[in-house]
Amino acid sequence: MKLCRRAAELAGFRGTVGFVPTMGALHAGHLSLVEQCRKTCDTVVVSIFVNPTQFNDPNDLKNYPRTEEADLKLLEAAGVDYVFAPSVEEVYPEPDTRVFDFGGLDSVMEGAHRPGHFNGVGQVVSRLFDIVKPNRAFFGEKDFQQLAIIRYMVQQLGLPIEIVGCPIVRDSDGLARSSRNMLLTPEHRQAAPHIYAVLREAVDTLRGTVTVAEAKQIIARRIDANPLLKTEYVEIAEADTLKPAETWGEKIGDLRCFVAVHAGPIRLIDNVAI
Ligand code: PAF
Q1: What average pLDDT does the structure give for the chain?
Q2: Do 235 and 257 meet the contact criterion of CB atoms below 8 Å apart?
Q3: What is the pLDDT of residues 45-64, one digit of tens each?
Q4: Which residues are catalytic?
Q5: What separation in angstroms does the CA of 39 have from each of 17, 33, 98, 136?
Q6: For residues 189 and 103, what is the distance between their CA atoms, to the nearest angstrom?
Q7: How far is the CA of 37 from the centre of ligand 1 (A)?
Q8: Hey, which end of the chain has fewer CB within 10 Å, N or C?
Q9: Is 53 a pocket residue for ligand 1 (Cβ < 6 Å)?
Q10: What is the pLDDT of residues 63-76, one digit of tens each?
Q11: Is 187 exposed, middle or buried (0-12, 13-18, 19+ CB in 10 A)?
Q12: Binding site for (R)-pantoate: which residues?
């Protein structure tokens, strides 16, 4: 495995190039993306870069976990060929002033609650795509809105990159794997699986029995019944357009339920198909 700090060192790729962009603090979710990439590509490139332009909260950026040494060991064991772990100056030699139009996909949920977040994601992902020039790139469905936005961006920019979405990886108690989980206090870690438990039960029972608006309220109330959790939003939206749904619609799987929940100072997101 070759560790590259400079874009110019990323050379000599062979065959189909697969790319897994990450912000480090790697966990089983990232490793499932790497595994999928390894299975379907000849060269596997992983980036580790905590992108400052996508953090709307300076404290969140400051506290974001950084575990490079452990990350490199995991990536080596996973059979990665190249790790790109650049400095901020390497990725942004000049400040990036580009403003993206994501066709409204960024006006709801994370976009509405984290102003500028997706513009920063667009900046870094397009910049990394430009450096790595992958044939295929892998993203997790935990950040379902991010995945939709990246697909849209690739289409808009006409990039010849296949975007592959990979299923959410959960701990055995149901908590979606996230780098932020390692920042939870033991009490909040114990409370956090309640989020998925509520979502699972809700999607099985609420569709068709109450209105969509009522379902969102019920889900928020049930999550907040745990005193260590506080819902920021619950949204039920079309899986392809991310438009908030007003009715339940026809097809199973055409809607998804999305939540953002505060567990103390840590903000967690999750989503399930309905
Ligand atoms: O999902 C993430 O970890 C980040 O948003 C990404 C895609 C690596 C861009 O910084």
Answers
A1: 96
A2: yes
A3: 999 999 999 999 999 999 99
A4: 30
A5: 12, 10, 34, 12
A6: 36
A7: 16
A8: N
A9: no
A10: 999 999 999 999 99
A11: exposed
A12: 54, 146
The letter for the amino acid at 6 is: R
Is 29 close to ligand 1, i.e. is its CB under 6 Å away? no
State the pLDDT confidence band at 139, using cuts at 50, 70 and 90.
very high
Q: How many residues does the chain have?
A: 274
Q: Which amino acid, one-letter code, is at 192?
A: A
CA distance 208 to 211: 7
The minimum-distance atom of ligand 1 relative to the CA of 150 is: 7
CB 1 within 8 A of CB 7: no
Judge if the beta carbon of residue 121 lies within 6 A of ligand 1: yes
Please choose, from the candidates 76, 91, 81, the residue with its C-alpha nearest in 3D space to the C-alpha of residue 129: 91
Strand partners, 210: 207
**15 in helix, strand or coil?**
coil
Query: Which residue of 50, 53, 143 sits with most ligand 1 atoms within 8 Å of its CB, as the best mutation to test the pocket?
Result: 143
What is residue 208's predicted lDDT score, i.e. its pLDDT? 83
C-beta 22 within 6 A of ligand 1: yes
